Amino acid sequence: MSSQDHPVSSFKDKIKSSWPYTLAVAIIGFISLWVRTLPSNTVFLSDGSVRFATNDAWYHMRTLFVLLENYPNRMFFNPMTNYPNGSYIHFGPLFDQMMAITSLILGMGHPSSHLVDTVGAYFPAVLGAIIVIPVYYIGKYLGGHKTGVLAAILIAFAPGQFLTRSMIGFTDHHVAESLFSTLFMMFFMLALISAKERKLRFEDVFNKKFSVLKEPFIYSVLAGVMYSAYQLCWPGGSLFLFIVLVYAIFQYILDNFRNESSDYLGFTGVVTCLVSTILILPFVHPDMGFSMYYYSWFHVITAIGAMAVFAALSLIEREFKIRKINTYYYPLLILGAGILGLIITKIASPSLYSLIINAPSTVFGIQQGGPSTIGEATSIFYQNGAFTLYKAFSNFTTTGFLASILGMFVLAANLFKRPKPHELLVLVWSFFILLAIYGQNRFAYYYSINVSILSAYLGGLLLEKVKWNDLDQKFKSNVKSPSDVPGALKLVKIEQVFAVLFILIFLIYPVYGSAMLYSNTIKSTGSNEPNQPWMEACVWLRSNTPDPGMNYNAVYEAPKNGEMFQYPDTAYGVMSWWDYGHYIETIGHRMPNANPFQAGVGGRRVSINETNQPGAATFFTAPSEKEASAVLKAIDPRPDKMGARYVMSDAKMATSIFGAMPAWTLDTDGYYQAYWTGSQYQNIPSTRYFNSMESRLQIFDGNGLKQYRMVYETEAYQTDEVGYKQVYNYLYGGKLPEVDTGYVKIFEYVKGANITGTASPNESVKINTTILTNQGRTFEYSQSTTADSQGRYEFTVPYSTEGPIANQTQFNTAPSGPYVLSYGDMTKEVKVSEEAVLKGEEIKV
């Protein structure tokens, strides 16, 4: 830090010297907010509705409305998803509480639904703009005011996931994570700097030297508050506690080798962890045991453990100095103590030991199997199994990403010259977030902070190299009025001009260009989440299916450990792929079996030798209707209940994202086969794919299925569906109309009416009817069987020819006439009532 950046002698002079930078940061913040709110027209629609930008955003708005309906009681367990189990909400409570309090204040205690939607839509953009403040201060204390301002500019325009997740309408806790984790690092850094500058010792605590303790104590308390705020936005916030602990170990070792006291570090760490322990404790769910993803004893124990580590390392360091033990034994003692601690943990609590051991691979490792199909959980450096820097460059710009790597090397080199605690902190912080994006690209919204700071740090070093501070002082000395500016320009050296141009061209312009391109693209196209067909289908579901008998806005108590939630007899599930679960719940007000928390997916996790658990993956990949229905039956352990009454499918599930379904079962072979097209091999769907339940529903319209009937479809869009049908017709002798059909289709599981009769023994019998959908499209529904040796035959059919009845599904997709039964020269018409379909009644012909 240069001499110009140290506090000046008087408060008035300090204000005078810092106000230009304060004004600059404020302007940057408002520009950042403007960039993030440019696409407001795609969020606030002309019909007065508000469309949020992602499925998790819709879910946050759901939890927000429930909170406001029952304020201050929050929903921690939600029985209206992951039917029939329900789900504990792993989202932290703070993000919703901040929006709720803002809504209550602006609405004077009674906010309207539109006001709440408006607050929710703007919230991520506001938090994304505020983050320029801690980034500025971190940059300032790393390299001076110029570095801080440059860092603020870079984060204001930072592209990629950070910009995406802080745009208007992206109402998710990710931007709050970024803000509070950065504030945590800022205050922790300020506490370290303040405590070290004051040469704080633990004796100062015992002797109550408040003049020494006051500022470090305040910063440490604020660091603890911000860490708690971060963790109360996301339970996985222990990641940053881990980063600080690793930093602390290295800092203790460095200080010990340099024969310097680390009391400043111990004091900061103990106070920070103590505050966070106190603030996290009220939110712990004891029945969660040890879990990283829900507020459990794990979070309290890790905070207490971290506090113990700071205290123990400080105590050990003092003993080393008192006993004059060789400093080289210090890291060996730390290593031995760590191994011993793990051994004790394994003996005392195997579950906690397992969580600690597996946590690094969970965060930093590359996902396998089903989790590898989650877009945000894939590695930023691997695509289709090959190493690539494309996603890194697109998230941070090429120069930004390379500058961050170079910045870490420069900070590492400084360790051998003039190591400063806050420089080492930034280095360790940046390195581990880089490892985190290697494991999961979602952490790119964290790394954007590091990229901005490290890039600004390099820019600041460049300005320092061309003696920018000298030029600054000359300007202050020579420019007393605007008329002095032309003459002072002669003081500017050519290398200083080139340095500024270099920063503008290689650091600022790339992030500015990427940010404006993305923002204007969203402004033109919208986020399209959910798309119109899914919005329409969920609205239809809400209006035309029976009430499941649940209070949508109630706060329900979680069932006792090991017990199931007690649903009313009228409750039922809706089966779809997990991507769409929140839409089914928040827009359709129905209970999905699977949701974007990957609850209810089923399948396998580790080995193909595992039992294939019932869920969405096993249902949609089931090779027959019988096996698919067995999955629905197994989802609900109650003997008289099926796991789902409705099934929602879309064109993507049957085509572009179908591969994710078998990936969750770890049984991926045989769904596609290589086919020579004349110029190259191309993977096309195979027999196994066409036999899957998803294909039977979406591609074949459920034709031939006995207990699944289409009750609604949305408008058709151009998709890959036609290509799949062409493959089926060409290779397998099919006669499917090669047209796109409803983008989203809703099917109902029914018992089915049993049509029985007699024909000649062993004679082929066929039944068919024409189905007219709500879109005016027709398709043939047919089954065939062979009469037994006694001439008896039986069909189970799912469609009613008589229309819907009260308090049941109000379908408008149905047969256009009676069923036609035919064998030999005989044809008969058969009418089927809705009661017969729902109750499984027999109809004798």
Automatic annotation (TrEMBL):
Superkingdom assignment: Archaea
Topology of this chain in the membrane: Multi-pass membrane protein
InterPro entries given in the database record: AglB-like_core, AglB_P1, Oligo_trans_STT3, OlisacTrfase_arch, STT3_N
Sequence ranges assigned to domain AglB-like core in this UniProt record: 533-654
Gene3D superfamilies: 2.60.40.3390, 3.40.50.12610
Cofactor(s) needed for function: Mn(2+); Mg(2+)
EC number: 2.4.99.21
Family affiliation: Belongs to the STT3 family.
Domain Oligosaccharyl transferase STT3 N-terminal positions: 47-464
Any GO MF annotation of the entry: metal ion binding
Location of the protein in the cell: Cell membrane
Membrane-crossing segments per the record: 21-37, 88-107, 119-137, 149-168, 174-195, 238-257, 264-284, 296-316, 328-348, 396-416, 423-439, 445-463, 497-518
Keywords recorded for this protein, A-Z: Glycosyltransferase, Magnesium, Manganese, Membrane, Metal-binding, Transferase, Transmembrane, Transmembrane helix
Full protein name: dolichyl-phosphooligosaccharide-protein glycotransferase
Catalyzed reactions: an archaeal dolichyl phosphooligosaccharide + [protein]-L-asparagine = an archaeal dolichyl phosphate + a glycoprotein with the oligosaccharide chain attached by N-beta-D-glycosyl linkage to a protein L-asparagine
PANTHER family: DOLICHYL-DIPHOSPHOOLIGOSACCHARIDE--PROTEIN GLYCOSYLTRANSFERASE SUBUNIT (PTHR13872), DOLICHYL-DIPHOSPHOOLIGOSACCHARIDE--PROTEIN GLYCOSYLTRANSFERASE SUBUNIT STT3B (PTHR13872:SF1)
Stretches assigned to the Archaeal glycosylation protein B peripheral domain: 752-843
Primary localization class, coarse: membrane
Alphabetized NCBIfam families for the sequence: archaeo_STT3
GO cellular component, as recorded: plasma membrane
EC main group: transferase
Recorded metabolic or biological pathway in which this protein acts: Protein modification; protein glycosylation
